[in-house]
Design a protein that fits this description.
Elements lengths: L9 H8 L3 H9 L6 E2 L5 E2 L2 H15 L4 H8 L3 H37 L5 H12 L4 E4 L8 E4 L5 E5 L6 H11 L3 E4 L9 H9 L1 H16 L6 H11 L5 E4 L8 H12 L8 E4 L15 E5 L8 E3 L8 H7 L3 H16 L1
Parallel strand pairs: 5-8, 5-9, 6-7, 7-8
Antiparallel strand pairs: 1-2, 3-4, 9-10
Helix pairs in contact: 4-5, 5-6, 8-9, 8-10, 9-10
């Protein structure tokens, strides 16, 4: 460590990069960063590590998982090519939508300038088409029937809360009130997912899509399993406009969870919305939540659910963080928690 170089402690480095100190430790654990150490053993981030960390943050914003980043920095250009292609397609879709909307707005301005009153109704329809899906309903038990509204629904919507907070009931209620939605429960794992497996055997196109996605996830560090295949069958099946999934990470290892959430992020802003319960920090990495994602938190005291911004210091952030744990910790405590909860 030189005397002239500027070295930052973890808090300073995290603040400058716009991530959490926990994210920096996670990057280090995966071999992506190697901060220096002070004489007292504290981590210190110099210019080189800060530049590397900035690259990691930028690539994470493109939807790359940590497993993918390990391979990218190891020289695997295929991962980068695929991520950039997906990001380019997503940007192209957004541009296309904006251009189409801009053209409509210009035509309507011309009509209004010519005194056409009928343009007012067209404007109303246009604004309605621009708005995202909204939903409003009375909350089920264990709440007291409070009115609840959810606006600006994103492609990825995390539902988080402690045990007994009502998050599963909220998810099931959302599946009832959202237009053309379906609830994918944990019963998908019973009998080896026979229902979804039979659907694969009966639909060659669906089977082909699942096999392609499975191969991509395995290449990204995931592990092929019956649990993953059943989940992919549910995700790839055409039909419901919205899916609500109970415990997305159930029975999936760390690498598979990271590969899966990276895949879901790369679907782009026009993909059908997904709601899913999670308590995994690999699925919901608070340092990596993007503009197309939203966090819905169910408080332990059964106050109405709230939307939580993924920034330290915002309302609900710490409560959400305490609900999350690594897949390894979740696996170790799952049986203990289940026995306590049912006793």
């Amino acid at each position: 460590m030189t005397s002239t170089a500027r070295f930052l402690n973890p808090s300073e480095a995290a603040r400058q990069l716009g991530v959490s100190a926990k994210a920096l430790r996670l990057y280090e654990e995966r071999g992506l960063l190697a901060p220096a150490r002070t004489a007292a053993g504290w981590r210190a981030y110099g210019p080189g590590e800060m530049a590397r960390a900035a690259e990691i943050v930028e690539l994470r914003a493109l939807g790359l998982t940590l497993s993918e980043l390990v391979r990218v920095f190891g020289g695997d250009a295929r991962i980068m090519q695929r991520a950039l292609a997906a990001h380019e397609a997503s940007l192209g879709n957004r541009i296309g939508q904006l251009v189409d909307t801009l053209q409509k707005v210009r035509r309507l301005r011309e009509e209004l300038g010519q005194g056409e009153i009928s343009a007012v109704a067209k404007i109303a329809r246009l604004l309605k088409s621009i708005n995202t899906i909204d939903v409003a309903f009375d909350l089920p038990w264990p709440w007291g029937g409070e009115h609840f509204e959810l606006r600006d629904i994103r492609p990825l919507n995390y539902i988080v809360g402690p045990l007994g907070s009502g998050k599963t009931r909220l998810a099931m209620r959302l599946a009832e009130v959202l237009p053309d939605a379906a609830f994918i429960g944990l019963d998908r794992l019973t009998n080896n997912g026979e229902t979804y497996r039979s659907g694969l055997d009966a639909n060659s196109d669906l089977k082909s899509r699942v096999e392609r996605t499975l191969a991509s996830l395995v290449e990204d560090g995931g592990t092929a399993s019956n649990t993953l295949i059943v989940l992919l069958a549910a995700l790839e099946t055409e039909g419901p406009a919205i899916l609500v999934i109970d415990m997305l990470e159930q029975d999936l290892d760390t690498g598979t969870q990271e590969a899966l959430i990276g895949h879901l992020r790369r679907r782009g802003p026009n993909a059908r919305p997904l709601f899913f319960l999670t308590r995994s920090s690999a699925i919901l990495d608070l340092a990596s939540v993007g503009d197309d994602e939203a966090i819905i938190f169910c408080p332990a005291n059964h106050s109405p659910p709230i939307r939580v911004a993924p920034y330290r210091g915002t309302t609900g952030y710490e409560a959400v963080a305490t609900c999350l744990a690594s897949p390894e910790v979740r696996a170790r405590t799952a049986g203990i928690i289940a026995r306590r909860w049912t006793s």
